[in-house]
């Protein structure tokens, strides 16, 4: 019983860490403009819209976070092997991984933006100075919480994978969850605020991103402020639920039916999520109704 | 990307020369291992190939809209095919590896459900953002009616887009894709683990329990690597975006299945030869 309670407690802590990790990951990628909507940032100067948005998407978020979390976890693992305190080891490992992320961010921004020189898009040195450090700070939170979560899985819950391998697995899953959930909010709601709310962005408006903030030109720091209101928390809830439910169903139900209990619990959870999704879909169809020719911007 | 008008045509059908070369490679890999070690290692290679095929097939179910989906220009999840399938499959592999000691069947089922659960949560949160964050109802651009619920889509598509959101058929496709990915990844892991547990102690001349962490780590690394190989091959077959099992591109899966079988055979042979020779 005590062991079970301990397991559930660790699952809850891991879920909480994952929630913070997901929220920080999405905010970091929105500030650094690394998700799929980045194609619009890249396209904008070619359509004649010069901007001050950071652009560091050389690879997608999942492989990038796979790399950084593996680096953080691997370094922490190596430091623990020479008897460093685990907390200190995780902090140091994550910090070194963040410097790799900072180098990546700087070279990616310079390279991507310089490639747009023929469309007269300048490289803004002040954008590098102000935004790079902010993405690094958010990346540190995301990597540290993800590595700490993996540490709990290995040391408290006894997962057979070594720490760096778990860092790779959950780093990729973290990037996948964050980029899937947070990207639409950043892409449509933030970059296309000039478009009607409650409708998709017409294909003809591609590249016409909003470039001005309340006072002066918008920089990527404004994106962090905006998306941390919904895209970030939603990504956090998504990743937190994945981690928590995965651990919870295993720890709680593995005792039943020689391991099949956890499988049955997983099937039930999937069915519950399916029902909720259907409810959300039907709610949207009823509440927003079909588009008609006159009412394109109806549901604002 | 398809939202900019390109992309979905071209490269249909199966290339006979390419397929023949692939099948020869597949047979060479299987034959080489049969000559080297006909027992456990050979059967494991067959398991690895089946796992790779499951991953390649599963990726075709995952609804991916890429950059256009992030603007509400096309339906699906706003990320890359490989990324999402890998995320789901690896979450499954995590569960499968954990349940490995409870037996083969439980571990495989655990891996499949882990991947399915990851996709179920992700797809739900994607729809929550579309509906509550962007005010957009789900509408498919590829079919007029949802094959499961019967919802019509034409009137719910906003002007100038190919549809948006995540219709229920795409949701179900995502869950199935996650399950197949988790199942395939776990199968590859378990088969390789069996081989490493058998051959590594003899190779290093140490007791089995001492070598177990190395066997687990090595099998995990190779399973993740082969997962990515198969997911990337399937992503090239899909080229950009796919809505799920109702998408016309879904019919291309036989090509990916052949490609994944060949790639898994060659990669699996290398991973197994490492310890068998």
Mean pLDDT of chain A: 91
In terms of quaternary structure, the protein is heterodimer
Distance between the termini of chain A: 53 Å
Shape of chain B: elongated
Euclidean distance between termini CA atoms of chain B: 46 Å
* Helix percentage of chain B: 55-70%
What's this entry about, in short?
The complex is a heterodimer of chains A (300) and B (277). Chain A has 300 residues and is mainly α.
What report would you give on this structure?
Chain A: Belongs to the MtrE family. Chain A: Pfam families: MtrE (PF04206). Chain A: Part of a complex that catalyzes the formation of methyl-coenzyme M and tetrahydromethanopterin from coenzyme M and methyl-tetrahydromethanopterin. This is an energy-conserving, sodium-ion translocating step. Chain A: One of its GO terms (cellular component) is cytoplasm. The complex is a heterodimer of chains A (300) and B (277). By secondary structure, chain A is mainly alpha-helical. Helices cover 68% and strands 0% of the residues of chain A. In chain A, helix 4 runs antiparallel to helix 5 and helix 8 runs antiparallel to helix 9. The longest helix of chain A is centred in the middle third of the chain and has 31 residues. Chain B is mainly α. Chain B has one domain. The N terminus of chain B is likely disordered. Chains A and B meet through helix 2, helix 3, helix 6, helix 8 and helix 9 of A and helix 3, helix 4, helix 5, helix 6 and helix 7 of B.
List keywords for this structure.
heterodimer; A: 300 residues; mainly alpha; 68% helix; disordered C terminus; B: 277 residues
List the helices and strands and how they pair.
The complex is a heterodimer of chains A (300) and B (277).
Chain A: H1 2-31, H2 38-43, H3 61-81, H4 86-114, H5 125-155, H6 163-190, H7 220-227, H8 231-253, H9 260-288
Chain B: H1 16-36, H2 40-59, H3 66-70, H4 81-98, H5 104-133, H6 168-204, H7 208-238, H8 253-276
Protein name (chain A): Tetrahydromethanopterin S-methyltransferase subunit E
Organism (chain A): Methanochimaera problematica
Subunit structure (chain A): The complex is composed of 8 subunits; MtrA, MtrB, MtrC, MtrD, MtrE, MtrF, MtrG and MtrH.
């Amino acid at each position: 019983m005590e062991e079970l309670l301990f397991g559930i407690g660790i699952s809850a802590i891991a879920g909480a860490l994952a929630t913070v990790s997901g929220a920080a990951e999405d905010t970091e990628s929105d500030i650094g403009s690394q998700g799929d909507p980045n194609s619009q940032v890249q396209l904008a100067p070619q359509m004649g819209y010069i901007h001050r948005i950071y652009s560091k998407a050389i690879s997608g978020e999942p492989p990038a976070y796979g790399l950084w979390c593996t680096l953080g976890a691997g370094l922490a693992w190596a430091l623990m092997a020479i008897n460093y305190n685990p907390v200190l080891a995780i902090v140091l490992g994550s910090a070194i991984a963040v410097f790799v992320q900072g180098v990546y961010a700087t070279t990616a921004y310079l390279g991507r933006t310089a490639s747009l020189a023929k469309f007269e898009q300048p490289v803004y040195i002040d954008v590098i100075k102000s935004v790079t450090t902010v993405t690094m700070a958010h990346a540190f939170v995301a990597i540290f919480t993800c590595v700490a979560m993996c540490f709990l899985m290995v040391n408290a819950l006894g997962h057979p994978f070594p720490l760096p391998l778990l860092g790779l697995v959950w780093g990729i899953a973290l990037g996948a969850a964050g980029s899937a959930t947070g990207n639409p909010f950043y892409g449509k709601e933030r970059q296309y605020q000039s478009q009607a709310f409650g409708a998709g962005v017409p294909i003809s408006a591609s590249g016409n991103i909003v470039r001005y903030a309340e006072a002066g030109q918008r920089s990527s720091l404004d994106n962090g402020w905006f998306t941390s209101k919904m895209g970030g928390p939603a990504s956090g809830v998504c990743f937190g639920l994945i981690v928590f439910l995965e651990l919870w169903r295993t720890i709680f139900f593995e005792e039943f039916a020689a391991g099949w209990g956890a499988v049955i619990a997983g099937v039930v959870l999937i069915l519950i999520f399916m029902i909720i999704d259907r409810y959300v879909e039907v709610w949207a169809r009823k509440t927003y109704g079909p588009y008609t020719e006159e009412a394109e911007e109806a549901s604002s | 990307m398809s939202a900019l008008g390109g992309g979905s045509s071209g490269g249909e059908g199966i290339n006979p020369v390419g397929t023949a070369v692939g099948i020869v490679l597949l047979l060479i890999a299987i034959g080489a291992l049969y000559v080297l070690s006909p027992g456990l290692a050979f059967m494991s290679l067959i398991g690895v190939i089946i796992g790779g095929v499951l991953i390649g097939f599963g990726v075709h179910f995952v609804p991916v809209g890429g950059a256009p989906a992030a603007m509400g220009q096309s339906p699906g999840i706003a990320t890359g095919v490989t990324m999402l399938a890998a995320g789901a499959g690896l979450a499954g592999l995590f569960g499968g590896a954990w349940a490995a000691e409870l037996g083969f069947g439980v571990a495989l089922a655990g891996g499949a459900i882990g991947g399915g659960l990851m996709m179920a949560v992700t797809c739900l949160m994607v729809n929550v953002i579309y509906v509550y964050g962007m005010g957009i109802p789900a509408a498919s651009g590829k079919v007029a009616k949802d094959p499961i619920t019967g919802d019509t889509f034409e009137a719910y598509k906003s002007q100038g887009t190919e549809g948006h959101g995540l219709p229920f058929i795409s949701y179900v496709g995502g869950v199935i894709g996650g399950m197949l990915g988790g199942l395939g990844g776990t199968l590859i892991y378990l088969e390789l683990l069996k081989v490493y547990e058998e051959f590594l102690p003899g190779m290093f001349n140490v007791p089995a329990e001492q070598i177990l962490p190395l066997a687990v780590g090595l099998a995990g690394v190779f399973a993740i690597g082969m997962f990515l190989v198969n997911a990337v091959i399937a992503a090239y077959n899909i080229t950009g975006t796919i809505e799920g099992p109702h998408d016309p591109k879904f019919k291309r899966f036989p090509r990916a299945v052949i490609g994944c079988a060949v790639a898994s055979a060659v990669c699996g042979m290398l991973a197994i030869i490492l310890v068998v020779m």
